[in-house]
């Protein structure tokens, strides 16, 4: 029997010997030592597995598989992506990174670390010669005793600062320029209606743009107190403090970010400032149970979703991101409202100086994130002036427009919302 087959058989037999052993009764010291030893043994066994895989091209040819990775994923019922990554690593260690293979053989480098190191070394510029490449490989292997894959990735990106500082800056600049160009080429964004009241947004952004977006979203999510979720009665009875998940908070933050976009700073569209328009009759706008049409919904493929409630239209009409086109008899446009309905920038600054935060009782959300609201609605004759205005965060702005809540003005200038009984 071939020595490698003997090892494989011996390993399986040895492991089978512990199949019925319950580790629950091990001491913490023994558990820690066992986990470390098993991790090292796993690295050694993985290296042997990769060493065989690197030479398996003939096996793929014999079975008409495209390559050893395809054969491996089929025969071992594993994910093709994982098998392909293993094959790439196997070839890299067989052809170039012999010290990395030796580290795995000794159990001092695990497979995850090896994948990161090989990728970092492959990314080094061509002008890095064999000698410098070897120094970089040795340095990163040495770091495996202290750092995991994530930290090694960061170290690998700056490894030239250690082994070749004279060319590090120029090489890094070229690498970043290539990444930025690739980021621009790969940038994508798709929108599709799902038919359940939501639209799926999928995309790829350049790293810098993604960091910018994450920073903006954190500005909405990080400092605030997360409102309680509205779970069903069973969930509420089990966990009354159930809160919004972080992805949900980011989603709501993205909605708020869109509502904070200043149309005057967007490109001209059809010869005018980019705007969103809703249309409804005057009776619909004043009704609690009515709908409005949102112009532009057809831009998104999928199930049509061009209608919103009059309640949502009234709330959105308070901001500069949407123009309410109120229609009379025969669809005559009665008012586009933008110039008279909306508060000016100077008024917004004055409101910020006066209110500083959302004026709802107990809410400390900064006024810079709040929306200007007419206490007496413009439709009911309320003027667009400071005496008829207050800053409300998005959550309390919705309450102000919700007929299910009453609004009480307190002597200190705050307002209190109460659900109608």
The structural class is alpha+beta
The strand line-up of the biggest sheet is: 7-6-5-8-9
Q: End-to-end distance, in Å?
A: 84 Å
The unreliable regions are 223-242, 269-274, 329-340
Return Rg in Å: 31 Å
Q: If you average the pLDDT, what whole number results?
A: 79
Largest sheet: 5 strands, mixed
Output the number of helix runs: 19
| Beta strand % | 5-15%
Number of strands: 13
Helix content range: 40-55%
Shape: elongated
Topology:
Layout: H1 3-16, H2 28-53, H3 57-62, H4 68-75, H5 80-95, H6 98-106, H7 111-122, H8 130-143, H9 149-157, H10 160-163, H11 165-186, E1 188-193, E2 199-204, H12 207-221, H13 233-238, H14 246-259, E3 268-269, E4 272-273, E5 276-281, H15 282-286, E6 291-295, E7 307-309, H16 310-316, E8 322-327, E9 333-335, H17 338-341, H18 345-355, E10 371-374, E11 389-392, H19 394-401, E12 405-409, E13 415-419
Parallel strand pairs: 5-8
Antiparallel strand pairs: 1-2, 3-4, 5-6, 6-7, 8-9, 10-11, 12-13
Give your account of this protein's structure.
With 421 residues, the protein is of the alpha+beta class. The chain has 19 helices and 13 strands. A hairpin with a 5-residue loop joins strand 8 and strand 9 (333-335). The radius of gyration is 31 Å and the shape is elongated. Residues 223-242, 269-274 and 329-340 have low confidence and may be disordered.
């Amino acid at each position: 029997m071939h020595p490698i087959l003997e090892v494989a058989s011996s390993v399986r037999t040895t492991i089978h010997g512990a199949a019925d052993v319950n580790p629950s009764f091990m001491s913490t010291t023994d558990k820690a030592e066992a986990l470390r030893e098993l991790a090292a043994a796993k690295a050694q066994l993985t290296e042997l597995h990769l060493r065989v895989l690197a030479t398996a091209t003939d096996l793929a040819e014999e079975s008409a598989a495209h390559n050893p990775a395809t054969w491996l994923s089929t025969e071992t019922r594993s994910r093709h992506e994982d098998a392909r990554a293993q094959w790439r690593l196997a070839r890299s260690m067989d052809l170039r990174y012999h010290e990395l293979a030796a580290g795995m053989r000794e159990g001092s480098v695990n497979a995850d670390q090896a994948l990161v190191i090989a990728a970092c070394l492959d990314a080094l510029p061509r002008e890095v010669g064999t000698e410098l490449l070897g120094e970089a490989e040795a340095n990163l292997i040495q770091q495996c005793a202290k750092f995991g894959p994530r930290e090694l990735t960061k170290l690998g990106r700056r490894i030239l600062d250690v082994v070749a500082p004279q060319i590090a800056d120029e090489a890094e600049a070229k690498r970043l320029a290539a990444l930025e160009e690739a980021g621009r080429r790969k940038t994508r964004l798709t929108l599709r209606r799902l038919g359940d009241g939501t639209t799926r947004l999928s995309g790829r952004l350049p790293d810098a743009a993604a960091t910018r977006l994450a920073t903006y979203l954190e500005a909405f999510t990080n400092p605030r107190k997360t409102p309680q979720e509205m779970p069903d009665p069973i969930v509420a009875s089990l966990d009354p403090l159930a809160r919004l998940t972080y992805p949900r908070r980011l989603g709501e933050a993205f909605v708020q970010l869109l509502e904070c976009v200043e149309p005057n700073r967007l490109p001209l569209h059809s010869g005018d400032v980019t705007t969103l328009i809703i249309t409804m009759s005057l009776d619909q706008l004043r009704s609690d149970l009515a709908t409005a049409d949102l112009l532009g919904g057809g831009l998104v493929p999928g199930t049509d979703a061009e209608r919103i409630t009059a309640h949502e239209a009234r709330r959105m009409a308070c901001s500069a991101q949407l123009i309410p086109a109120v229609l009379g008899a025969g669809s005559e446009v009665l008012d586009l409202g933008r110039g008279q309905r909306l508060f000016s920038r100077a008024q917004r600054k004055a409101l910020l100086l006066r209110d500083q935060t959302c004026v709802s009782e107990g809410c400390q959300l900064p006024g810079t994130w709040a929306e200007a609201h007419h206490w007496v609605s413009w439709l009911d004759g309320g003027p667009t002036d400071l005496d008829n205005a207050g800053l409300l965060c998005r959550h309390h702005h919705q309450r102000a427009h919700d007929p299910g809540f009453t609004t009480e003005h307190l002597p200190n200038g705050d307002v209190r919302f109460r659900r109608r009984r």
